[in-house]
Give the backbone structure.
Amino acid sequence: MRSREVIEMVKKTALKVVRTKRRSKAKTPKKAKALKAKEKKGRSLKELLKLRESINDRRPEFVMQESWRYKRIGERWRKPKGIDSKMRLGVKGWPKLVKVGYRGPRVTRGLHPSGYRDVLVNNMNELQGLNSKTDAARLASRLGAKKRSELIGRAKELGIRVLNPKGIREVKKPSE
C-alpha cells in the first residue's frame, strides 16, 4: 500500500469513530436527570432540603471586588477580570469567587423550604391550576382583603397550602 492510501484509510476510520461518539449522547429532560440523581443518592426530599440549608449556611457572601472600599461600587456580584487582581487569583484573605461547587442539590432548586414549589397567585383561575401535592400558593401583595379571604377559602377546599395567609381580617358581607 502506498502512503496516500494508508492516510485515506486512517481518515475514514477516524470519521467513523467521531460520528458514533456524537450519536451516543442521548439527551434526557432536566427533570428526569434530577430524579435519577435523587435515586442514585437514595435521599429523600426532606434530607436534600436539610442539605441545601447547610450548604447555604456555609456559602460565603459574593461581593464585587473592592466594593467595601468605594462608595460608588455596589456589592452586587461581578467577576473580577484584571490581570493583577488578587481576588481573581484567589489570594488568601480576599473574598471568594462564585464557583459551581457552592450550588445546592438540583432537585431542591426553586423549592420553598417546606418542599413545595412556590407559585404566585393573583386570581381564582391561577389557584385552580395548581397541584395540591407539589405546589403551594403565595398570594400576591396587591390583593385586597375580600379577594384574599375568598382565595384562602378556595385553597382550603382544594387542599392547597397557602404560604402567606396572614393579614386577613374578617370581611363583613353586605346584608341584604
Observations:
- Strands lie at 117-121, 135-139, 161-162.
